[in-house]
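Notes from the 1:1 (GR / supervisor)

We went over the backlog. Supervisor wanted to see one worked example end to end before approving the batch request, so GR pasted a single chain during the call. The sequence is below; no edits were made to it. Supervisor asked that the structure be written out right there so they could see what the output format looks like.
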Amino acid sequence: MRALCTRLSGGSANSAAAGDGSARAAAPRPGPPRPSRARRAVTLAVSAACAAVGVLFATVPAATAGSSTRVNADDPSAFNIKDPRITESSGLAASRAHPGVYWTHNDSEDGPYVYAVDSRTGETVATVTLQGVEPRDVEGISLGPGGELFVGDIGDNLGGSWSEVWIYRFAEPEKLRDTTVTPTRYTVQYADGPRDAESLMVHPKTGRVYIASKNDEKKGGVYAGPEKLSAMGVNTFQRVGRTDMWATDGAFSPDGTRLLLRSYFGAEMYRWTADGRPEPIDTVNVPMQRQGESVTFTPDGRTLMFGTEGEGGGVEPEDLEGELLPERAAKEKAAEEKDGGSGGDGEGNTAEENRELLVGGATFALAVGVWMAVRRLFRRRS
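Structure output shown during the call:
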């Protein structure tokens, strides 16, 4: 469009200037004839129409973006964890205090470390050292309602032979920098005996801690801890639901109405009932990954972030729709769609559609203007 405008409105003038220069170089003869009044009218009409289109190109994107409640630039994107120390990312938790940051940790044989990774760059922006902790098999991480991180040293690669496992709790740092903390330690046992588990979930409203065990020899299930964990003695977790999944991680939605459990190649969404039990809804698409070990909801609850182990491990988003959406996210999305959604005009048109309509109308106006000017030119000549 811009090239067309330049050619129609300025091309003849540039040609005239070039011709004038050639004439001076060759001989002092008269320059080209002065454009007729009709030709000048054509040029003015084209210039005015092009100016109008230019104004639309400059202002329409800004106006529509300003009216959007959730622009594409803020949508979660896939990223890779670049820190060479993180080769077995086995848990994932979206920070509430630091937008775009995800907490993760290695599996066994790393040390008492938790890492904050910026999803915009893939770089580690903080390392938290858990003082006094000698981890055995750290498998899960979750953020509680009070802004505290819970780390689950709950893995049992020996098939459920450990008589007890542990959970560590510490406050999410207000500033992203390397630091050392002394966490609270909770001792955990299962009411029906030891088992292997990799999924630690803290309910974002009640603060109650849950563990999902692997479905090894039909032992898969969701276990609830006491209403409040105690650092004194043993916390016994009771089975509150059965699962048929080899769960490698799990997460509650930010509003607490959904629970997601993932395995290496699949995932299932559950509705979290009022009495604190999982009710299956449907399966969820999982991206193809080397060894899918982690998952978390984004802070708005509309997207799942799936992570994998391995050097340069990838974290990939999966948008949720329909019944899979948590209740609060579904209500927010419905309200946006009712108001026109993502920068719409209240009549179902999106920001991009409105922009295309406006620019299309301006282009049509330009064509009509040029046609009328050319028609006037030929009428005068005839």
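Supervisor's comment: Residues 22 and 329 are 69 Å apart (CA to CA).
Batch request approved.
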